[in-house]
Amino acid sequence: MSAAPGVASGTYGWMGRVLRIDLTTREVADHPWSADDRRTWVGGKVMAARILGEMVPEAVDPLGRDNVVVIATGPLTGTGAPSSARFDVSAISPMTGLLASSNSGGPFGTYLKRAGYDALVLTGASDRPVWLEVNEDGVIFHEAGDVWGARTSEAQAAMTETVGRRCGTLAIGPAGEHLVRYACVISGERAAGRAGMGAVLGSKSVKGIAAWGDRKVAVAEPEAYRKLLKRWTASLKQHPIAGGSLPELGTAGFLAPMQELGIVATRNFSAGRYEHSGAIDGRALAASRLVSNAGCLACPIRCARVVEVGGREVKGPELETLVLLGANIENPDLDRIIEWNVLLDELGLDTMSTGVTLSYAMEAAEKGLWDNGLRFGETGGLAALFEDIAYRRGLGGELAEGSRELSRRYGGEGFAMNVKGLELAAYEPRGAVGQGLGYAVSNRGGCHLNAGYAVALEGLALRMDGRSPLGKAALTAFFQDLMEVVSATGCCLFTTLGILPGSLVEHPERGLGAIAARVFSYAGGVMRLLRVLPRGLLGIPMPLVPHIRALELVTGERYRFGGFWSVGERGYNLERMLGLRFGNGGALGDTLPKRLLEEPQDMGDPGSVVPLARLKADYYRQRGWTAEGVPERKLLTRLGVPER
Fold first, then answer.
1. d(CA 113, CA 213)
2. Helices (H), 204-268
3. How much is the average pLDDT of 535-554?
């Protein structure tokens, strides 16, 4: 066992220790992370970005030993806050070459804090397969020869059996071992799915990690915090989405309104509606397959599904999987999607990048660019193909590279549906142009969450005009910052739905909802003013953002609205600067596939494309960036973000 030296106690929310593990030498030590660092960078992906910016060299091979993995929790993780079991896995991505983080609601983060640590920093690479046991005394390196090659559930079960007590685990599958660029990490049944973090762990010969301990998170004001949690939980349960449609239908419940609005990624994003969407949506799943709800630790929303297929009870698919392995490849077979979802998790493959890479390959074959035998709607052999991707066999070995690399090889970059190398999510943005802007400027590539999730305002919660650019740049930037800091606290982003009161979203097409949608369209000037005001002036009470008060009551630090927002803005701008360092390309890199910019979704309406040039110019002005998409020096100085 390698034990790290102790540090001073007396922190609230944070455990006060970040553990650095050198996989090459097997040396373990405390990573320097001060009280000021904790206050400034908080945790999660923001904390990870700061650490990676200091440690990773500019010319780094994402699958080489110089890449660094940071697995980070937030100060609310393990405190009982609603949906606060989140943790982030961050590194330089083998898909994009840029800084990326992948978030999971599995049990690992909670147990890492019980072991006494806020984060792990993995450097170097092991010369043979290992898995790590992290506890209050340090780290045990276990030889992983007996689980190398195992699927994710088998690997986690084997680690738990060896530990011999309740613990939190994460593991990669065969896809990570074979360095598939979009390999994911699985914790319990939840995935840190995006940007290839499984491949990075595989390159370091780390099969998985188990964490356990009996430490408790100290809370600065426990009585006031308990009262806040009671009110916060009740408000989520009363919310029409967080307490209504999500528990009832899961994320799959969003598919029906997406179909209505014409924003369902269909046939490789060539259309926004799928004629068989009713066969794979939330109602179909609930009516014929649903056994029960499930959810992450400490989650009152319970949006996860347990479903029955072939006589087995298994994890049900999320919206993204239903669309990208359904409408996107013209597959209306719900049972097949359910089976694939389980298989891909076991193999350790991101279902989203798998679906979009597959749809690119189908269209490339259809257009005569690549004779690969794949066709839209022909899905009988795909389970075997997914195995081949995970093990890099034959055609699967090529598909393992992702849509960007394949389009460079075979052509068709205009319909390779990725941004910066990361495949898009399920929302077809020609009917939700704010979401299109978000995809383009997202720091980690084609991500709906790092994009700011403007689609929530363009149809899933409010009904802003999805094809109008009005207000979209300001709102995208604000929600990107908000999601950044909420993620840093350790909370699920679905908890931000409460920011939109139930009176607005219950009937978004009329009454207060319609008024709010119109008002939001003219938010640009107000948001810009708020951005340039000193943050100390923004001590506005924000009862609709309970995360602020929760963070204060847990940590004993004073943030208020201005300080809370600054954490998110600081993190987003730091990620931007690191992206520029690692080759984002600024304004040139902030783009979309030509299909979305030049091919109208509605052939009768030439304007039914994403007006990206206008949106991007507005967005850069909102953020205080140059026309080239580079943060201004005075902005970086105000936020305390290093220029290099």
1. 8
2. 222-238, 246-249, 255-261
3. 83
Categorise residue 447: left if φ over 0, alpha if ψ from -120 to 50, beta otherwise.
beta
Residue 53: which of 76, 75, 37 has the closest Cα?
37
Residue 1: pLDDT above 50? no
d(CA 176, CA 268): 26
CATH class given for the domain over 18-211: alpha beta
Residue 524 pLDDT level (bands cut at 50, 70, 90):
confident
Domain ranges in the chain are 18-211, 254-423, 429-639
Beta strands in 404-511 (DSSP E): 418-419, 422-423
Distance CA 493, CA 456 (A): 12
How much is the mean pLDDT over the chain? 94
Please state, in angstroms and as integers, the Cα–Cα distance from residue 505 to each residue in 130, 510, 511, following that order: 49, 10, 10
Beta-carbon contacts of 529 under 8 Å, excluding residues fewer than 6 positions away, are none
Strand order in the sheet with 69-72: 27-30, 18-22, 119-123, 69-72, 87-92, 99-104
CB burial readout 574-589, b (16+ within 10 A) else e = bbbbbbbbbebebbeb
Provide the token pair at 110: 């909670």
Half-sphere exposure of 535 (CA within 13 A, CB side): 16
Over pLDDT 70: what percentage of the chain?
98
User: In terms of C-beta density within 10 A (0-12 exposed, 13-18 middle, 19 or more buried), how is residue 608 classed?
Assistant: middle
Provide the β-strand partners of residue 2.
Answer: 139
Rounded distance, CA 99 to CA 194, Å? 12
d(CA 118, CA 107): 14
pTM equals: 0.96
DSSP output for 99-122:
EEEEEE-STHHHHHHHTT-SEEEE
Instruction: Kindly tell me the number of DSSP H helices and DSSP E strands found in the chain.
Output: 26, 17
Considering the domain delimited by 429-639, tell me its CATH architecture: Orthogonal Bundle (1.10)
Alpha-carbon distance of 602 to 594, in angstroms, equals: 15
Angle at 189 between CA 176 and CA 251, to 5 degrees: 110
What is the rounded distance in angstroms from the CA atom of residue 533 to the CA atom of residue 609? 35
Query: Which parts of 382-459 fold into alpha helices (H)?
Result: 382-391, 395-399, 403-410, 433-441
For residue range 121-159, what is the model confidence (pLDDT) as tens digits? 999 999 999 999 999 999 999 999 999 999 999 999 999
Residues 349-407 have pLDDT tens digits of 999 999 999 999 999 999 999 999 999 999 999 999 999 999 999 999 999 999 999 99
Instruction: Provide the pLDDT for residue 349.
Output: 98
**Cα-Cα-Cα-Cα dihedral of 445, 353, 45, 492, to 10°?**
120
Neighbouring C-alpha atoms within 13 Å toward the C-beta of 66: 9
Specify the CATH number of the domain 254-423.
Answer: 1.10.569.10
Cα–Cα distance for residue pair 217/533, rounded to 1 Å = 35
